[in-house]
Amino acid sequence: MTYATDQHPVSLSHEIRAWDGKSADDIRAVYDRHCTTDAFVPTLVQLLPDPSHQKGASWLIKRYLDQGGTLPEELGRQFYASISSLEHWESKLHVLQCLPSVPISVECKPGVETFLRDCLLDDVKFVRAWAYSGFYELARQYQSLQKEAIQILELGLRDEPASVKVRIRKALKAGF
User: Who contacts 74 (Cβ-Cβ below 8 Å, separation ≥6)?
Assistant: First the structure.
């Protein structure tokens, strides 16, 4: 991986593309080098739709939010506008895990709902599990969806493997 030096700064985009997609230490180092710059989060949100950046950008956004960061409303809208283009299951998972930290505006609600429904059908159990949690988050913000969300969660309890049911139970236990 190529790193920035004082004489030859390497762009965030280049570092994400150069990341092997596996090394947690390397992607954490990218975060540490760039997280304090003003352009960090806007750049990540801009890079998220690009398949060559999705996995790294989504990981870095999740890390930023996990560290207590927030997305301003406009960046939140851009973030949600890009989710329909996600190709990698890890990127979908990262975005699903970000839902509790990024409020879903009224204009983003239909796209998020479609994304969640698609993720419920994903082959990857982790994605499905977090999609159930995502429906809980959406219904928590939009009371009109609570009845349907409960039905979806209850169907998941009936049909999903034990590893997915754990996440569903957490959502049901939290309540609305």
Answer: none
pLDDT digits (tens, 9 = 90+) for 55-82: 999 999 999 999 999 999 999 999 999 9
Rg for the chain, CA atoms, rounded:
17
- Do residues 122 and 128 lie in contact, with contact meaning Cβ atoms separated by under 8 Å? yes
How far is the C-alpha of 116 from the C-alpha of 101, rounded, in Å? 16
Quick one: which H or E segment has residue 21? none
Picking from 163, 152, 162, the residue whose alpha carbon sits closest to that of residue 121 is: 152
Geometric angle at alpha carbon 156, from 94 and 121, rounded to 5°:
55
Residues 95, 44: Cα–Cα separation, whole Å? 12
Per the listing, tokens 């283009």 go with: 85
Instruction: Provide the CB-side half-sphere exposure for 165 (13 A, CA).
Output: 8
pLDDT tens sequence across 101-124: 999 999 999 999 999 999 999 999
d(CA 27, CA 22): 8
Contact of 45 with 85, CB cutoff 8 Å: no
To the question of pTM greater than 0.70 for the whole model, the response is yes
